[in-house]
Amino acid sequence: MVDRDEPKKGASSGFARFRSTLRLLYHSQSPKALRFQFSVLVVDLAIIAFFIATPLLRDNPTFLWIDYSIAAVLAIDITARALASTDIWRWLRQLPVIVDIFILLTLLAPAWIFNLGFLRILRLWTLSRSSVVWRPLRKRGLDGYKDTIQAVINLLVFLFVVTGFVYTAFAGRDTGITGYVDALYFTVATVTTTGFGDVTLPGTWGKLASIVIMIIGISLFVRLAQSIFRPNKVQFPCPQCGLQKHDPDAVHCKACGHILNIPDAGDH
């Protein structure tokens, strides 16, 4: 007698194997998985380059084709990552995933969500939270530079998000901002508190926006300076108190005095 449930079981086991394969590709460190993760990283960087160039390409006849093509690639990547996760609903609640889904929506409706399209650059921020970026550094004992790289990425994301906001909200209002480069120039001049005064934002809201840009920009610059000039630390959680970072040659935890056994960089 033929078991009618046999095809269903075969399809179920095949789907489970497919999810297991995706999980290995996205999260394991085998040579095949690392090649896959590197290719995904290259695609992500290409998408980010498109996001940065979007204001300059919007009037190009091929813009929508590129936009929808990237939307398809991003949708496939999000779906694959969801299938690779062990708990999809928990995965969906993570902030980088929510940001990626919002970015996908802006790609699917470029004409309707144009005013928020500049937030696509947040893809760079979500990418910086991915283990794909940090595994090669950790493998080579360079994870001590993680804070510096993260600080640079945070600053770049802030600059481009603010530039997009200024360009979208204030261009063409007797501000001196006639193009994207003008908005970027204003943002950098404001963040660095140079303030040449040749480009300004009008009205009370313009002044308030400038104040917020300066305060956050200075904070990010200070954070970057701290990560560059403070002593290098290694990531090694203390078994006693959980303190995450210590000096590379530390023998005892500076918080609780517990004896540490930090491996050399070549042993990571």
Automatic annotation (TrEMBL):
The keyword Heme does not apply. It comes from the Bacteria. GO terms for cellular component: voltage-gated potassium channel complex. GO terms for biological process: action potential. Gene3D superfamilies: 1.10.287.70. One of its GO terms (molecular function) is voltage-gated potassium channel activity. Its main location: membrane. The keyword Ligase does not apply. Residues 157-228 form the Potassium channel domain. It holds the Pfam family Ion_trans_2. It is found in: Membrane. It is a multi-pass membrane protein. The chain crosses the membrane at residues 38-57, 63-83, 95-114, 149-170, 177-196, 208-225. Keywords: Ion channel, Ion transport, Membrane, Transmembrane, Transmembrane helix, Transport. PANTHER family: POTASSIUM VOLTAGE-GATED CHANNEL PROTEIN SHAB, VOLTAGE-GATED POTASSIUM CHANNEL. This is Ion transporter. It comes from Devosia limi DSM 17137.
